From TrEMBL, chain A:
Pfam families: ABC_tran (PF00005). Transmembrane segments: none annotated. SMART domains: AAA. Keywords: ATP-binding, Nucleotide-binding, Translocase, Transport. Residues 5-247 form the ABC transporter domain. One of its GO terms (cellular component) is membrane. It comes from Streptomyces mexicanus. This is Phosphate ABC transporter ATP-binding protein. One of its GO terms (biological process) is phosphate ion transmembrane transport. GO terms for molecular function: ATP binding; ATP hydrolysis activity; phosphate transmembrane transporter activity.
Automatic annotation (TrEMBL), chain B:
GO terms for biological process: phosphate ion transmembrane transport. GO terms for cellular component: plasma membrane. Part of the binding-protein-dependent transport system for phosphate; probably responsible for the translocation of the substrate across the membrane. Belongs to the binding-protein-dependent transport system permease family. CysTW subfamily. This is Phosphate transport system permease protein PstA. It is a multi-pass membrane protein. It comes from the Bacteria. SUPFAM superfamilies: MetI-like (SSF161098).
From TrEMBL, chain C:
GO terms for molecular function: phosphate transmembrane transporter activity. It comes from the Bacteria. Residues 95-320 form the ABC transmembrane type-1 domain. This is Phosphate transport system permease protein.
Amino acid sequence: MAKRIDVSGLTAYYGAHKAIEDISMTIEPRSVTAFIGPSGCGKSTFLRTLNRMHEVTPGGRVEGKVLLDAEDLYGAGVDPVSVRREVGMVFQRPNPFPTMSIFDNVAAGLRLNGVTKKSELNDVVEKSLKGANLWNEVKDRLNKPGAGLSGGQQQRLCIARAIAVEPKVLLMDEPCSALDPISTLAIEDLIGELKERFTIVIVTHNMQQAARVSDRTAFFNLAGVGQPGRLIEIDDTERIFSNPSVQATEDYISGRFG
Amino acid sequence: MSTPAVTDRTTGSLRGGSLPRWFPLAVIAASIVVAVAIGLGTGLHSKVQWGLIAAILAVLGTYVVAARVEGRRQARDRIATSLVWVCFLLAVIPLASLIWATVKRGVKVLDGYFLSHSMAGVADTEPGGGIYHALLGTLEQVGLATVVAVPIGVLTAIYLVEYGRGALARAVTFFVDVMTGIPSIVAGLFVLSFWILILKMGYSGFAGSLALAILMMPVVVRSTEEMLKLVPNELREASLALGIPKWRTILKVVLPTSLGGIATGVMLSIARITGETAPVLLLVWGTNFINSNPFSDPQASLPLFIYQQYANSSGSGAAYDRAWAAALTLIAFVMILNLVARGIARWKAPKTGR
Amino acid sequence: MEISTQHTDPAPPLAAPSTAVGKRAARGATRPGDRIFLGLSRGSGILLLVIMAAIAVFLTYRAALAISKDDGNFLTTFEWNTGLLPAKFGIAVLAFGTVVSSIVAMALAVPVAVGIALFLTHYAPRRLAGPIAYVIDLLAAVPSIVYGLWGALVLVPHLSGLYGWLDAYLGWTGILSWQGGAPRSLLTVGILLAIMILPIITNVSREVFRQVPRMHEEAALALGATRWEVIRMAVLPFGRSGVISASMLGLGRALGETMAVATVLSPTFDIQASLLDPGGGTFAQNIASKFNEATEFGQDALIASGLVLFVITLLVNGAARMIINRRKEYSGANA
């Protein structure tokens, strides 16, 4: 089920540009870890190295180790496609497949894995939509296009799509930044429920959100424009927000910069 | 939490079986060897067949090996990759052959004499002669067509972008699209019916220019429209706010800003009509002699010359040589126009952050 | 771009509904310079419409002259005899040849073009993709007469092998049997047309595939899709209407192509059962081949056939445009 992530000495590049440098941390299973930090500090880049999505960007390159329960994602012979099946992802802007129905969107990942039996698909789709707190709103229109839902519903649809394949880890890249406050609240509640089953990592710009949903918080920063982003500290969320050990963290949280 | 859907995968390793990077090359090499062996063994003469066998073997081999080692999904991915490469190679062969043939056969008789003499007194089947009359005709016809089409096209685009609202603008937009799709021979037939059959004006270079202008106009309108739309509104507002009348704003601010793009569009449309043969065949008729007056009597034209050398020469090698040389000249002309147009586009591109 | 709301006349802006803005701009242009300029540019637009109307009217008029004296049925007669009276001519053979050669061309070109477009957008190394796209752009500019010359003198001699092979293995189908004539048949025409429309279909499809939002591809990737699965899930569904309209544009070009067909086909005025046997003809090719010997009446008859071609291409291009325009709205709503 949920798995632990151990990152050691991770550096990521865009071509010649070093985006993040020498990051090491441990992410506990069945918990929510939030990444905060100013824009451009590399927190999204780091998130994308955790399921090998970083290398999809032209010029994207990674050095270092990411252990998923002791297995290195970047080890020789590891297939990025199987990594992404283990580590699901939800994006900043809701991105349901525009040409697919709600049902097909959720079933997309299962179909990739060769599940074709209708009854089985029905079960998993229902379970996933319920898991994403969306079932009651869409159960009567599963065959309507997913793009017809509201932004918040679309984002929960994307979460349902991600959890339908039973990943071990769920990465969320600013999942609420395109949503209104009510939809944001719905997603935050959902994150609270999902952490029972998954290891969740969430990137957010919103410090209140980090404080509300996460168990642990990591603060990223960069020394200056063009400099690589670094991990400043990671600790229990309460500690970070009440009594961080690094001055920069406190400055950032209290709004003195960033 | 594990559903039947997911128990059969995962549980453990991320490490699917995977094939080394040199695998595709190895399969291709092996298939070529086997195909050559089969070809020699069964006495197939056609190298094309060898190639076909090799291609089929490569695709099948990739699938079988990948399916065994990496699984069916990866195998399908590899098949798709090889099919896409095959598509690309399939398309490259005729296109490369076209260019190769034109250059190789075209340079045979292409020289200063060829460019500076007409076919006067040269029978179609004899060697000698040249394309001076055809070059002259093409330049005049295309020039006249440009003179007719560019002002109309640019003004129409200005109307659409700067003034056009409502039904008239919508109709113009729609019919410009429709006009883009008119086959060149239909444009030729129109001028034939109107200019030659009804007004009894006789075959001439200018009749051809009219048809070419019809083909050119929609292209000019479209490209000019695109370029005018790229001019930021702030520029217009800045000028209008200075109390400059709208027509001067358009002439002095909008047009100069987009001049590079408009020039590019015009050159591309010239390149397009230069190669048109069908309307010229119907309206200009063709001649072996130099006729520098486009307004009366048949003229020659480069594309028409190619066709007539090919069609009227009953297989004479000399005529074919001339056709290839003329084709090379035509391609060179069109390509130079294209390259210059792209050069202008790059050089003059409006810096709108795109 | 609401430009006409900024015109310079000193009168206060009128609160007219947007459909009337054009007229308002006209009334607002009080300066002589503005009036002349607007008159010129609007006149050009109107001239374009007049030309389109004139094309339809004159072609129809001359076609009517010819058809009224046609002793056969214009649609079904298998003959093109305009020299002797009573004249008998019909477009059945031409319609058949035009449609068949275009279908062959589409069947060959569309899959390959989509493949190349995918190759350029998703498979080719980036350093290769740019130059290749550039070369394909240039190939779209090669004049059709050059394709025709190449087709007649290079392609045709190379097709005998293929024809023999098709006859040997697929001859039993009837439509792919070969009696051994020169390979100047509708199939050859189709192959050459396919090569000619390949660049345009590739270019338009490539544009469409490039516009597939990155986030949809990433959504598929994040689900653990292979590259091919990403294309199946995100790229092809998004690009489908674009590929259809690209194909229609290619079809429009194939239908109206003249010189390349005239050079590679040995025309006869009948319908061959087999695609491989020389014979048949297309609208455009027939006009080009028969024009030189035609009397004025014969030219009118050719104009009549040209009118049919005009209508067909209008329908095809109109359909393509409609699909493109619908797609614009669709993608705009979801962007």
